[in-house]
Amino acid sequence: MKLKSNSVTKDMVQKIFFCVLICLSAKEGVAKDFLITDFGAKPGVDELNTIPINDAIDACYKNGGGRVIVPAGIFKTGTLVLKDNVELHLEIGSVLFASINRQDFPLQPQPIYHSLKDAGGWRALIYALGASHIAITGYGTIDGNGANLLPGPGARPNDLDGRPRNILFISCKNIAVEGVHMRNSGIWNQHYLDCEDVVVDKINVYNHANRNNDGIDIDGCRRFILSNSVFDTDDDAVCLKSTGPAPCEDVVITNCIVSSFCNAIKTGTESTGGFKNISISNCVIKPSRAAKRLFGDSLGITGISLEIVDGGIMDGINVSNIVIEGTQCPIYVRLGNRARKYNKEAPTPPPGQMRNIQINNVTAYTTGNYSSSITGVKGAIIENISLDNIRITNAGNIKPGEYRPDYSKVKEDEKGYPQPTVWGNLPSYGFFIRHVKGISLSNVTLSSVAPDLRFPIIAVDVENLLINHISLNKKNSKIDILLNDVKNYKIDNRAINL
Question: Given this model, what pLDDT does residue 29 score?
């Protein structure tokens, strides 16, 4: 029989196939739903449901996998441990609400994989270690109740003080997190450590409850996709790390709206294993909606941060199609040398390396006056970086004494925390470039809302510099590009016409 061209399509065949597969699986008992209320879970903030929800997870796991269903209602709980082939599904109107009792978040055993962050032990609301084919789905909410989760007695300082994460997956494979709303974590909201084959899609994160309230930390993971999500956080919003020997490799971040009082999209505060093949695209960065902040800057500190400071290699980075509203420093590229070891037995890492970085199609407006920077340190230079089609408009109206006019006074600070707050307002309003080999700036427009006294671009200790098709602000008093110890440079098609 000859079918009409519009009678059966490839998509229809695929849908029929998957429907049949799902029906057969359900019939044979391979996949099944496990409703937490059938295991004794009760809604309400006075009921602790840690045991019944974990019982539902265990039953699902022993059945060969399926969905653990959290229905509409508020369900208070302590640590939940996901296991192989289990999908935790939060229905619309459901809330997993963290207990405020520390004993409900027991310290997890030390995993085989060691990290700079495991010295205080691991605690989490939703936890998995070495699990495969796990998921958190639905349009319910994970509320970490973080304002009420405080460090225990004698806790280590800062982010090692044992506050629980909302989600912590260590050395897991084949992970899907989709649709859920995440709120108020005790510390980092989501931490994926040494994981592989991860998709995080269509999530909504609002995290302003406690110190160190990151949005998502992708830490030493391989093959990771983050897409179509919204973040608004007190601390770093989207953060790539390598706190142990595993590299952060083959990562795609796309189609996200990101707000932070600190750093919107960042790689490398910890960098032991390095970063390779990272693509960041089609994102909007804007100021936070939150009325209060614990630290950071109301405008945001950085838009895009690329950093290597604890050894490791950054190679193959592409940042494209980014719109930045606000933030003190739109683009921050930093090679430092803090040289921290990820554990006591590890060797002290040598200075790291950064190379093969492309930043294209970035529009930044109403930014602060920190300005953008691309800086290595003596003996550790950044290599092969290109910026194309960049448009930045800073606030301007900066007065004498509000910045260091002498570029030689901008300290190296190779052991310091990598953040532009250490410098404040740089002596350039566009880009400050130092210790770089092989850099091009093409189709760059630099302007200021109000006149700015500083140089548009300063380059120090740079080899192979190309500046082509650059447009500068004619109302600013300095229109020259300041070069010092620059070898092999070419500046073409400079326009002073804004």
Answer: 47
| Pairwise CA distance, residues 408 & 396, whole Å | 22
Copy the structure tokens of residue 67: 């969905």
| Tens-digit pLDDT profile for residues 45-83 | 999 999 999 999 999 999 999 999 999 999 999 999 999
Q: Give the DSSP letter string of 325-354.
A: ES-SEEEEEEE------SSTTSPPPPP-EE
| Amino acid at position 459, single letter | A
The answer to pTM > 0.90 is yes
If pLDDT is split at 50, 70 and 90, which confidence band does 497 have?
A: low
For the chain, report the end-to-end CA distance as a whole number of angstroms.
Answer: 68
- How many distinct helices (H) and strands (E) make up the chain? 2, 33
**144: nearest Cα among 234, 266, 260:** 234
Query: Are the beta carbons of 103 and 164 closer than 8 angstroms?
Result: no
Tokens at 36, concatenated: 């937490």
Per-residue CA distances from 473 to 43, 213, 447, 476 (Å): 61, 38, 5, 6
Q: Indicate if the alpha-carbon torsion angle 25, 29, 31, 35 is positive or negative.
A: positive
Cα dihedral sign, 283-449-289-78: positive
Whether the Cβ atoms of residue 185 and residue 146 lie closer than 8 Å to each other: yes
E-only strand ranges, 202-291: 204-207, 216-219, 222-227, 230-233, 238-242, 248-254, 257-260, 263-271, 275-285
State the number of CA atoms in the 13 A half-sphere of 56 facing the CB: 23
Instruction: Report strand pairing: 94-98 vs 44-48.
Output: unpaired
- Tokens for 101, please give them: 């009792």
Point out which residues pair with 245 in neighbouring strands: none
Distances in Å between the Cα of 123 and the Cα atoms of 52, 56, 339 are 19, 21, 27
**E strand intervals along 27-113:** 32-35, 44-48, 66-70, 73-77, 80-81, 86-90, 94-98
